[in-house]
Design brief:
Elements lengths: L7 E4 L4 H9 L4 E4 L5 H15 L2 H19 L7 E6 L2 E3 L5 H8 L3 E2 L10 H7 L3 E5 L8 H6 L2 H6 L4 E4 L2 H4 L5 H15 L1
Parallel strand pairs: 1-2, 3-5, 3-6, 6-7
Antiparallel strand pairs: 3-4
Helix pairs in contact: 2-3, 3-9
Length: 191
């Protein structure tokens, strides 16, 4: 706020109280939801490009994303059931951007099949073909970290885990298509 911004871009994860205070102080703000699909990414890019007066640049970013997604769509499906596994346990079911990324990569989100819980037992019952884990793995000593490194998980999915930066599927930008392509390559190598 000290820098007197021309425009503040806020998302739904930001504090509502902070957004309200910024509005009261008269700061120009555009609020966008956290995209959970490629269509929502397109809409967000168009909204921001219009705000910044860079509509052509926004459309170019969307065209690049769509071209990469079209390339991925031409590849045959992998017929792999994949689950995201971290210290939080199983995560990212239907409707999350991660689900759209998996679909674009040619895999199926096994969590969408229904699972009771998010713990080790739920993962073992779901029995996906491949696990997607955060880049760098988990190295702490908390209970959460121990869950992610559970011996049964390490043994059951030895050699069948891929590591992807959460930034690749959490941030809804046109670069997400590259994350899907990278994930596709890793999944092909792991199967």
């Amino acid at each position: 706020v000290r820098q007197q911004p021309d425009l503040i871009v806020a998302d739904s994860f930001g504090s509502a109280a902070t957004r309200a205070a910024l509005r009261r102080f008269g700061f120009p703000m555009v609020e966008v939801a956290q995209p959970q699909s490629f269509d929502e990414i397109r809409a967000t890019v168009r909204t921001l490009a219009a705000q910044f007066g860079t509509v052509e640049r926004g459309e170019a970013l969307i065209a690049g994303m769509d071209a990469r997604l079209a390339e991925l769509a031409r590849r045959p499906a992998l017929n792999l059931r994949v689950a995201s596994w971290s210290g939080d346990g199983l995560s990212r079911g239907e409707g999350a951007l991660y689900d759209a990324v998996l679909d674009a990569a040619g895999a199926r989100n096994a969590v969408k099949e229904g699972v009771a819980g998010t713990d080790v037992e739920a993962l073992l019952a779901l029995n996906p073909d491949i696990l997607v884990a955060p880049v760098g793995g988990v190295v702490g000593q908390s209970l959460r970290d121990r869950v992610a490194r559970h011996p049964l998980v390490r043994r059951q999915w030895a050699g069948r885990q891929v590591s992807v930066s959460p930034r690749a599927y959490i941030c809804g930008t046109p670069l997400i298509a590259e994350a899907a392509a990278d994930l596709r390559d890793q999944l092909e190598a792991a199967r």
